[in-house]
């Protein structure tokens, strides 16, 4: 189940109901090898103030890169800082990027529900529409992959799905901006 909210003040919210216990989902958020199956590889130091590494390489997610997509697209290697590490409930971290201080804040909260675990992701302090578009498409695509991984379903091709969502979010955010100026 997917519920996505875009808020025009630099904040994205995603909610997913995942078919696994909270402890399992927590492991997929914090353990290098499991996180690498849906988002990216990288270690997480298990404490506030610790380092969180992001080693993005969509080709390692198992999907073939289309011939018209340049090699290295969406590949990145950077680090953030863990803000909250409260297993198995909350992981928050500073994401280097285009926030007001050069960083945005991502908070992932987990809650047990009847069907498994509710994941509530909030990404805030995003300052530009292009970063909103990229972040929305990225989180949507990656969370969809997490949902598929946990339900043992086949995920859509990363490249195709991300590019389609990027186009859709670009239109949605433009419409939100036009509405806020009317």
Automatic annotation (TrEMBL):
Pfam families: AHSA1 (PF08327). InterPro entries: ASHA1/2-like_C (IPR013538), START-like_dom_sf (IPR023393). Residues 21-147 form the Activator of Hsp90 ATPase homologue 1/2-like C-terminal domain. Gene3D superfamilies: 3.30.530.20. SUPFAM superfamilies: Bet v1-like (SSF55961). Belongs to the AHA1 family. This is ATPase.
């Amino acid at each position: 189940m997917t519920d996505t909210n875009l808020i025009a003040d630099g904040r994205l919210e995603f909610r997913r109901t995942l078919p696994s216990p909270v402890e399992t989902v927590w492991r997929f958020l914090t353990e290098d090898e499991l996180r690498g199956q849906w988002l990216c590889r990288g270690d997480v130091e298990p404490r506030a103030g610790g380092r969180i590494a992001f080693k993005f390489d969509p080709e390692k997610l198992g999907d073939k890169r289309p011939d018209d997509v340049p090699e290295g697209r969406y590949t990145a290697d950077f680090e953030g800082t863990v803000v909250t590490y409260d297993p198995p409930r909350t992981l928050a971290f500073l994401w280097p990027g285009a926030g007001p201080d050069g960083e945005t804040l991502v908070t992932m909260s987990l809650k047990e529900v009847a069907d498994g675990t509710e994941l509530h992701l909030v990404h805030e302090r995003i300052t530009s529409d292009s970063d909103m578009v990229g972040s929305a498409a990225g989180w949507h695509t990656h969370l969809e992959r997490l949902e598929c991984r946990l339900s043992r379903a086949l995920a859509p091709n990363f490249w195709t799905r991300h590019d389609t969502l990027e186009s859709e979010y670009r239109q949605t955010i433009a419409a939100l901006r036009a509405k806020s100026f009317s």
